[in-house]
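To fix ideas, we quote verbatim one protein's residues and fold tokens.
>
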Amino acid sequence: MRIGVPIWNVRVSPVLDAAEEMVVVETGGESPPSRRTVPLSPRSLSAQATRLAELSLDTLVCGAVSRVLADMLEAAGLAVVPWVAGDLEEVLGALETGELTSQRYAMPGCCRRRGRARRGRRMQSQLGRRTRRSA
């Protein structure tokens, strides 16, 4: 299996669209996983999608990604796991152990947190209606 993770310093790049480097990890077989760093070219979204497709990745783990680029990658048959944040080594370890879906690796302001915020506003508006009716 070939996994790609765009990087910025030693962390998952916060925005895939602008990432300039990617770590490609090849796992499977009897040999230990191999790892290499490859340059990306964020000239345009189509150039970025073409470059990522050329890498023949099975899975791409990334931070934020624009809807346009995500659609291009999925059309090319690439599985995209977005909204991931954290240290590269920790994220790769969590991917290996199946713990990548943990809130610990969610980008701040993303994923499950959004649902709670909406629910809170909805409950506040319902409470407001109740008080106005009883007044």
In short: The beta strands are 2-8, 11-12, 21-26, 34-39, 59-61, 79-81. The longest strand covers residues 2-8. Helices lie at 45-54, 67-75, 88-97, 112-134.
